[in-house]
């Protein structure tokens, strides 16, 4: 039996454990399989969004790439991005840390300095958690609760043939920053390092997309554009065609990639942790959407279209040649 990737393992561990009928009776609108779960809220007008992310030392971060406060900031920011991808507002956080001997009280204070800096910026209340010891590596796990208007959460499964595919910002910046930090490159552009160490979840863009109803489907770019596009394609039962000439590449990333012999398109498509939003929109809304995003000062790029066919993702080159895209991005259980 071939080894399972991250999502294959999730399915193997969870599928069929609890019936859909029982979940609905328990108040679950949407369970495992999207950026956040959606459950019955405190009022008839809202529902709760629940998300959880974990950061493990030497898997998600190293001393060479992130300071203690960066680790804390990013641990919360990753969760906020999941709430943003559903069009929600982040609200309450629970923080669990497993602390090894090398992480003394001062280092942990710096970590929580960064976490609270992110919490204050996005108006998240840190309300509890857990603390344990760990033998060798630090583990930070954050559970985040947010809220969304009842029945309005934007899901991955709404893409339909004829829609356009969009991004709410350039991608590849975080991957470029990680490359420079890992290789101790002193000339790394500040924007790339910032994108990796202190990412900006797209809460404003997510709320705008929900309030206008423009986004038919939505996903945050945590594991790379290719991987997130595949998730939308599979959830919606459609084919996404991305166009190479429409993919945004920032000037800083292009210059850095050229200087260091990297293909910028690889970083754009397969680098992760940019936390912009990838989604689909009916073509009739494109003009209004572009105009509103411009007025709000939020980047927006149309990068492809949705087609009928076997679920998957393809890319069209500048010459017009179309080739399938691998379902590739960051995978915790990949050996490659």
Description:
With 336 residues, the protein is α+β, with helices and mostly antiparallel strands. The protein has 2 domains: 6-149, PurM-like, N-terminal domain (60s Ribosomal Protein L30, Chain: A, 2-Layer Sandwich); 156-324, Phosphoribosyl-aminoimidazole Synthetase, Chain A, domain 2. It has helices at residues 6-14, 20-25, 68-84, 105-121, 173-182, 190-197, 203-212, 225-236, 251-259, 264-270, 286-296; strands at 28-30, 37-40, 46-56, 89-99, 125-133, 139-149, 164-167, 215-220, 239-243, 277-281, 301-307, 312-316, 322-324. A 7-stranded mixed β-sheet has the order 8-10-7-11-9-12-13. Helix 3 (68-84) packs parallel to helix 7 (203-212). The protein is globular and about 55 Å long. The model is unreliable at 330-336 (pLDDT under 50).
Low-confidence stretches: 330-336
Number of helices: 11
Briefly note the CATH topology name of the largest domain.
Phosphoribosyl-aminoimidazole Synthetase, Chain A, domain 2
Q: How many β-strand runs?
A: 13
- The dominant shape is globular
Strand content: 25-35%
CATH class of the largest domain: Alpha Beta
Domain count, please report it: 2
- What is the CATH-assigned architecture of the largest domain? Alpha-Beta Complex
Question: What do we call the CATH homologous superfamily of the largest domain?
Answer: PurM-like C-terminal domain
């Amino acid at each position: 039996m071939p080894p399972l990737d991250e999502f294959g393992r999730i399915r193997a561990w969870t599928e069929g454990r609890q019936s859909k009928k029982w979940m609905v009776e328990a108040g679950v609108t949407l369970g495992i399989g999207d950026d956040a779960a959606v459950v019955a809220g405190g009022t008839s007008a809202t529902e709760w969004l629940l998300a959880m992310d974990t950061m493990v030392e030497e898997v998600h971060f190293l001393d060479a790439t992130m300071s203690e406060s960066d680790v804390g900031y990013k641990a919360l920011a990753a969760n906020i991005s999941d709430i943003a991808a559903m069009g929600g507002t982040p609200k309450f956080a629970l923080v669990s840390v497993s602390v090894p001997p090398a992480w003394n009280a001062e280092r942990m204070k710096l970590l929580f300095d960064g976490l609270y800096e992110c919490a204050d910026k996005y108006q998240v209340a840190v309300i509890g958690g857990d603390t344990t010891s760990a033998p060798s590596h630090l583990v930070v796990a954050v559970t985040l609760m947010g809220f969304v208007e009842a029945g309005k959460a934007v899901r991955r499964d709404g893409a339909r043939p004829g829609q356009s595919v969009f991004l709410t910002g350039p991608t590849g910046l975080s991957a470029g920053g990680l490359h420079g930090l890992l290789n101790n490159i002193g000339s790394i552009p500040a924007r790339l390092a910032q994108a990796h160490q202190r990412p900006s979840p797209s809460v404003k863009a997510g709320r705008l997309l929900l309030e206008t109803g423009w986004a038919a489907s939505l996903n945050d770019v945590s594991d790379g554009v290719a991987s997130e596009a595949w998730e939308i394609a599979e959830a919606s039962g459609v084919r996404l065609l991305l166009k190479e000439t429409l993919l945004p590449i920032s000037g800083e990333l292009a210059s850095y990639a050229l200087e260091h012999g990297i293909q910028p398109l690889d970083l754009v498509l397969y680098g992760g942790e940019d936390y912009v939003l990838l989604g689909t929109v009916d073509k009739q809304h494109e003009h209004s959407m572009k105009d509103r995003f411009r007025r709000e000062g939020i980047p927006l790029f149309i990068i492809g279209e949705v087609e009928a066919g076997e679920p998957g993702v393809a890319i069209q080159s500048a010459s017009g040649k179309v080739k399938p895209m691998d379902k590739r991005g960051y995978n915790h259980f990949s050996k490659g």
